[in-house]
Predict the structure of Nuclear factor of activated T-cells.
Amino acid sequence: MTSVYTEKDPDTLGISEELNHGSCQDEELDFSILFEYPLCDDYQTSEQEELDIAHKVLNPSGVPYTHGEVSHYGPKSCNSSTYAEPPDGISGYLGDRYYLDPARQAGPSAVSPRIEITPSHELIHSYGRELNLGHPMNPANTSPRSTLPVPGYESAYREPSCLSPASSNSSTSWHSDTYSPYSPWGSPCVSPNNGQADDLCPRFQHIQTLTSPRTSPGTSPRTSVTEESCLGLNSSSPRPNSRSTSPVGKRTYDEHTNQNTPVAKHRSRSPSPQRFRDDSTPNAFNLHQYPYSSSLADAMNSLNTGSSCSIPSKIVKTNPSYPLYTSVELQQENYLGSGEQDVKRKPGSEQVFLVPPNWTKQLVPGIPFYSIPVASLPSLEWPVPSQVDQYHLQIEVQPKPHHRAHYETEGSRGAVKAPTGGHPVIQLHGYRGKEPLGLHIFIGTADERILKPHAFYQVHRITGKTVTTTSYEKIIGSSKVLEIPLEPKNNMKAIIDCAGILKLRNADIELRKGETDIGRKNTRVRMVFRVHIPQPGGGVVSLQVASTPIECSQRSAHELPMVEKQDVECCSVLGGQQMILTGQNFTSDSKVVFTEKTHDGQQIWESEASVDKDKSQANMLFVEVPPYRDLSMRHAVKVNFYVINGKRKRSQPQHFTFMPLPVPAIKTEPIDEYEPNLMTAKMSRSLGTLPQPYYHPQGMMTSDSCLIASMASCQQLRSGLSPPDSRYQQQTSAVIYPRSKSLSTSPLLYQQGSLMASPVPPMADSQRSVLVHASCPAQSTIIHQQQSTSPNHHPTSIIQFSPTNHQLRGGGLQEHQRIMYCENYQTSPACSPAPSASQAQRISPSHYPTVIQQQPYVQKMPKNRSSPSQLEEQRSSDNPKDRSGALRVTVKEENLDQLYLDDVNEIIRKDLTAVQGRGQT
DNA sequence: GCGGAGTACGTCCAATGTCAG
DNA sequence: TTCTGACATTGGACGTACTCC
């Protein structure tokens, strides 16, 4: 396996950075080439020692991590969810290298549609001069990519298999509608069943008849070799030269119709390969059903062997100034051992590294910048703050609110742009290091729930001359992530001109098992940026910032009104306050309607605001907030409003909070045993700080934690220091990865720094968050732990949260790990009057929609705050057997998204199973 | 429950600009 | 230097599926 980058430089050799796990049908190929990873144990330099150690800590296996999922192929990693035994066909693990056993019976073919370009010896050595495109081992086969059957690695790729290969229109992806869930790229291109056309993915059945594939499908001819270039997938187009096509082999309408003759009247939409999370997806190809197909391989090779399917000269054309390093040279340069680097090996297994010229001075051995191993990265669903200590990740230039995403069947629609015509700009402040870092970009949701990777959109890498930013694709979890360097020489600023957005077909995604989101009208996304900063002490600080929402549909850019900003987010119940809405597509007929809905979705109030049409413009509305329906209400009420231009032309609902009139005296009322949890959590949610359903799978929620959280939220509200768009910022506990030499065996503490997002120092100081690594990141959860130094400090905070709890499902948690929660303390703009903490305690749970509690059946929450020791006692006495019979879920006010219900149920089921299992043993 | 109208989705078409040969 | 072909990008439109009334 080689891990190869695709260098954006159009003159560089095409490099797809993604993992290619075995990719050659040519049995003569030296498979060991493809799966080797060089060691880089001695790459530290004196000035980098600390940071290198940090990386080693995070990568204790010693296998140099690479982009994509390469780390999954290393020795047993700490991440059990991603760890994979060497795939069948990879006969052993030697040191840090897997190698393939050529003698082993090849399994299903084309588990990887990504067939890596392995330049020949001659090619490599003539780099920059003359290029010999012949295959090093089989001169007759000039295809640089072939397909290596590597069965049985599903465990490694179930999760990361889900990205749309198609999304890499530019250079790196393939595409299939029906593809193996075991293939990270979907495997459309090689039939698992003897290569018969009817065994091919419908979208690719045509490829067998093709003889003259295009040379550079859907990609810049200068950037890289794409799979289709050798397999001719794009030749299917009836207009083969008319326009760019997806590298995945676009279906044409005719093709589609023909291949669905029985239902020709309708377009049958085959499933997208993206983001499969479950191999049981009905659309998934089960490669296990199919023997290795030599015939198809032959067919593929026959395609490849055509002159047109040689390595396109464009692709191998290189920049003459591009340096070429042999292994010896790299060793001398201290670059050897780069697991991240584009490692090319000649048949003689001599390593050759292709190092972009602009990296040579910045290159940290093994990686072009500080790129944390995927296995060590926090889940994309985890909330991460934008600011920690002196570090602050900031969007200097926001993306345009509209960007028409492209489908797999389309060509790219370019990179997301800024309103001014440029591109979004991200900057990391406070970084004093000398080494470049990797900035991750992915497409996240833009709804009211917690930020997470969007199910229906993926980031799409843009390449070409116009792109100035080097980018690399990576897979984290099941989402595609672009990684671009943040370089000190650029003041840690990056222009995001390489990120487009790919739309996945709704039907395909909705068919996924476990997918509860619907795609229809779910067209808003956010660009999410993350950076992981290694610390001298061995930890890593992770920062994240999300852009303002981006509407990705076609029509909405011209028709739907869109609110981008509101200068006021709350006022008193009396209303009357002027609110300025900034956005697009406002008309003279635009109206602003405030609504309130019950937790079950019933609208109980609607009031049209007064719009000052004289002042209003196409991008600005001056609105007078109407009074709330109940002037006597005594707690903050969250309502929505939207701008409507006409029938069905309304904006996304925006939030607004009506605050109660000041109350002279606050009476403390008794609360029931668990109400504090409800109360505080709900209060927080009501204040916009806890947008997610609130549940606690481990049954250890305490009133204190919730109270503290709510108080923090209140103080945040009061502070009024948050930016207007703060609700789109994930301001959460910091995550720091401390040094540990035993990541794989012992818990790794992620200790939070100061809660920088919180503008309230005392609370921020007292709020400490600890992310505990059990044995692997996938099993990690985040703890918010109270470490108050105050004499009246609260006991250990135990609030648990997980958007989908994937991280919590990794098995039974240890007792000391059970108490985990990390909520994104979303800041809110200034509001007045804000409820005090005492007011907050009076908030009635009945006003807030969703709370799920899982708690010990017999162990009720104490009325009085427990000391940490008491809590510990409770925990220690809470033996598994007891818990097995005690686990209970209380669903309050059912308004849960089914996703969360499913998650909770799943957690409980697994918990019970685990507990029962322990009980039996 | 049914049907028509409107809307959303997914795909295709065409124009334009850039770049390499 | 100019021409040509290939491709990326972009806006628009069409056919079908879906939703709403």
